[in-house]
Amino acid sequence: MPHWLDLMLQSLGPLLAAGIRFTVPLTLITFVLGLALGLVLALLRLFAPRPIAALAWAYIWIFRGTPLLVQLFVIFYGLPSAGILIDAFPAAVIGFTLNVGAYTSEIVRAAIASLPKGQWEAAYSIGMTPVQAMRRTVLPQAARVAVPPLSNSFISLVKDTSLAAAITVPELFQSAQRIVAVTYEPLILYIEVALIYLVLSSILSLLQSWLERRFGRYGGFLEARA
């Protein structure tokens, strides 16, 4: 067996274990929390009084305008100088959540704003309150519009979690770095990590296509009812 193939097979187990223990949970937790934060920010920008909407805009401006790696360093390495100590994994969750929330908020806001005003008027005409109209009519249709860009954000997040290695989270990429430190075979190990990320991204792309088809049928059902 070639040396490179033997090394890849021996390292595959530890790499997958690191991915399952840290990369996958970090991705799922931060995306769910970031999506919830993004929805709140989007609603504040669309419907809150101007001062509050301005604060939401400022938050989005800051986190979209600064590098994610810098944000992680501020949280993990910077806050301890102010007496705030956060372990590596929680710091990564906070950093990624705040960053994802800023990006998803713009996706959700654009999806809601793209719906015609007639949808609101139709909901009001059958006696719905603004909250009911948002929950029963607007958000389901906005979700169909938002699925493709949100799916792209999720796939990007899977790859961006490799930045957590910079704050000592032992995820997939840092696990590869540790193996490289022992084997002195960076090319083989980093190519293997790239292939693992490629497989994950390909699987998620297939899932994205399935979701788009499903939401497309749901959208057609809503339009037929209208």
TrEMBL record:
InterPro entries: AA_ABC_transptr_permease_3TM (IPR010065), ArtM/GltK/GlnP/TcyL/YhdX-like (IPR043429), MetI-like (IPR000515), MetI-like_sf (IPR035906)
Residue spans crossing the bilayer: 20-44, 56-79, 187-207
Membrane topology: Multi-pass membrane protein
UniProt organism field: Aureimonas endophytica
GO process terms (BP): amino acid transport
Family to which the UniProt record says this protein belongs: Belongs to the binding-protein-dependent transport system permease family. HisMQ subfamily.
Cellular component aspect of the GO annotation: ATP-binding cassette (ABC) transporter complex
Location in the cell: Cell inner membrane; Cell membrane
Entry annotated with the keyword NAD: no
Pfam families from the UniProt entry: BPD_transp_1 (PF00528)
Keywords, comma-separated and alphabetical: Amino-acid transport, Cell membrane, Membrane, Transmembrane, Transmembrane helix, Transport
Keyword Transmembrane helix tagged: yes
GO molecular function, one term: transmembrane transporter activity
Ranges where the ABC transmembrane type-1 domain occurs: 20-208
Protein name (record): Cysteine ABC transporter permease
